[in-house]
Amino acid sequence: MTLTADSAAGTADGTPGLLSRDDFRAALENAIKGREAKNASFSKAWADGELTREHFARWAENHFHYVGPFADYLGYIYGNTPDKFTDAKDFTLQNMYEEELADIRHTDLLIRFGEACGTTRERIEDPENMNAVTRGLQSWCYAVAMREHFVVATAALVVGLESQVPSIYKKQIIPLRESYGFTEDEIEFFDLHITSDEVHGERGYQIVLDHADTPELQQRCLQYVRWGAEMRFSYTRALYDTYVAPTL
């Protein structure tokens, strides 16, 4: 697909035109750049071997309340997707299934890691143990999933948030083994998501590229990818500010 005069330079009234598939893909990727959660302070301290198991316990208690409802977020997107978009509905349903039913619930693997860090299932599941920024991220995910066009919600949650996971965990899983001394069984949560979320993220990109078919939808998708990346970066930074910085 080649750029038309309108898509390259915008329309006569100055609003953006329809981007080509390649240009839209590049714009989606650029919307995350500079906002990657892998570069937030908590992620850097993790990768540099500066954290303790107590810090990881607090991470697990927060992360559960962000990723635990992910199938719920997807359920709202599924319900908002018209029946004619079979490919998008099938992907969302498969993603929900893999979160909740395939082999083992992803949240059970997260709890296993948290328990290895010294916290308990009861503490992890208790919403009193997440901080205010985590609560804000969870609420934002619910609001986007419930209220936005299905392709915008897919852009926000799958491209802006989920597609970042492999790059984050690839940096973190090595020090979990080599610096922090966790077993393979204890860190299965991370190993699983490096593989599964790489597939989910790419499929999310394809759905957005296929179905954001107006300039307005493309621009709203880009906005929500930026916001999603900013939300995850802020969430990750807040973990450092709340739990790590006071212990230094």
Automatic annotation (TrEMBL):
Pfam families: Haem_oxygenas_2 (PF14518). InterPro entries: Haem_Oase-like_multi-hlx (IPR016084), PqqC-like (IPR039068). The keyword Oxidoreductase applies. Keywords: Oxidoreductase. SMART domains: Haem_oxygenase_2. This is Iron-containing redox enzyme family protein. It comes from Pseudonocardia alaniniphila. The lineage of its organism: Bacteria, Bacillati, Actinomycetota, Actinomycetes, Pseudonocardiales.
